[in-house]
Every structure is written in structure tokens, then in C-alpha cells.
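Question: Hello, beginner here. Any chance you could explain the protein record under this note? Any guidance would be welcome.
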Amino acid sequence: MLPVNINLEGKDVLVVGGGVVATRRVRTLQEQGALVHVVAPDISEELHQLHAEQKIIWHHRFFEPKDAADKWLVVAHTDSPRVQQQIKDACETHRVWCLVGGQPENSSFWFMAHRVLEDITVAVSAKANPKKAKRLVGEIAGFLSHTS
């Protein structure tokens, strides 16, 4: 994996799913200025609120392969392995970067644990161990905040 920073400001991204993890991903993508589309038959209360405030676009239905077209990134967080595979396949067809939730080995990217300290971003990837990455990024950020 090649660690990179991606500028998502104003870019269309898709989150498939409306549960707790999908909601967290929507927040992260919005913090980066992405234009977030959500495809899910049901969504969390927080996502309902964001939709009501016109901060996300909600497609109230199940995923269709054409949903991946013209997106910069797709994040798949459903509870169906079959749907997750359909999303991955659609992304490969459309040449779109895809995170398949819970399956880093099936994903073309994944989110790194990160923290921003003024003009420094600390990011750590521990592949299938997000708790370890989160702990390490906290330790590194703590060290940096004491040395600046």
C-alpha cells in the first residue's frame, strides 16, 4: 500500500450503507470537503439529520452497480457479503477506489487512523488492526504536542 493524502474537496464520493460505521465514514469524508452520496434503504438518525440539512444526498434504495460510476471513492459498509462483493465488482468495472468494510484484503484503499496538529497530520496504518493504529497515532501525536 502506498500512503497518500487525497484532496476530496468538492469530489463526489459514495457510501453504501446507513449504519454506525457508515455514519462515521460519512463524517470523515465530510470533514475533507467531499460531496457525500449515501445509498441505503435505511439510515441512522444522524444521517437523516444531515440529509434534512442538505449536507448529504441520500438515495433511499438498495445499491445498483451504476451508483459507482463517476465517483472518486466508494465506501461499502453493508451487512451483506453478497452486496459488498457487488460493490467491489462495480468499482473495479468503473475503475473507482473502493473500501470494502471489514475486508482490507479486498479493498483498494482504507482509512488510516489520523490526527491533525496544526499543520502536521499524523497517520498510522496497521491494516486489519484499527485499534492498534488508533493507539499509536495517539501516542505519536502526544509526543509531538509535547515537543513543539
